[in-house]
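ZP: hey, is the NAP complex queued? I don't see it on the tracker
AM: it wasn't, my bad. submitting now with these inputs:
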Amino acid sequence: MSDTTAAKIDGKALSKRLLKEVKGRSEACAAKGVTPCLAVVLVGEDPASKIYVRSKEKRAAKCGIATRDHRLPATTSTGDLLGLVDQLNKDPKVDGILVQLPLPEGVDSDAILLAIDPRKDVDGFHPENLGLLMLGRPRFVSCTPQGCMRLIAEAGVDLTGKRALVVGRSNIVGKPMAQLLLKANATVTIAHSRTVDLPRLVGEAEVLVAAVGRPNFIHGDWVRPGATIIDVGINRLEDGGIVGDVEFEGASERAAAITPVPGGVGPMTIACLLSNVVDAAERRAGISAS
Ligand code: NAP
């Protein structure tokens, strides 16, 4: 055991700074007659989704971003939802469209995500936006990986030449995360459920991003001394507590810096979403050329 303790990378504080910046940019859009607007589509009664949507809308309002709330019953058909998406795509006052996942069983999620205009796809889930990221020319980058990159920057890590390990290969976290690390010139490994000898890979990683969804899955004593750890996992325990994918105490004894759960990646995700909305509004207002 070393006598050092990792620095905590404070996602709460960083997200506050980012939201302040987003608010300033939103006000600059408003001064040009463009109020940034996010359409939020919630289908069904999933309690966690309701909470997420409410907190996104609350934050948006604080940043001067208008929201259009579309709540639909769980019985909504793929066709009806496609109709709504089409309407929002065509509405010139809507900058971003967010369809809260998961959609109820029976709704074709892939068809819905594909139907969203890629220029309004502020979640960054559309294949065109994922493809642009793959080509190293990102437009909308999915919010959680984007937040992770901002946290790594906050920790003062220059990724060039660093060995980075992403544990998890989902389309919304693991894969885009690996692409962003690659773009930043890290040497990237992606681990998943079929990976052999994960402890060895973790032990080699100078930067570790865990996105698995299993409580305390990465043991503290696997961690390479001096590593930077970004813990994406949000796992609810039976006692109601929330922990990440990384054993926080043990890992803190070895790492140089680590994100806490909660208070790390989570708050950054919403802030990056709203930053994406304002990116789109700036394009509408002619503020940025990209
Ligand atoms: P997901 O789609 O379930 O993907 C989990 C990944 O973990 C899969 O690629 C899976 O591998 C891999 N995995 C499972 N068991 C493994 C094992 N034994 N060894 C190595 N890899 C293993 O989850 P996700 O959507 O990416 O989310 C991951 C976690 O992040 C969840 O806890 C989620 O709640 C959290 N999350 C947090 C935020 C935030 O804002 N903080 C946002 C999104 C997600 P296979 O592909 O081989 O199955």
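AM: back. The mean pLDDT is 96.
ZP: great, adding it to the tracker
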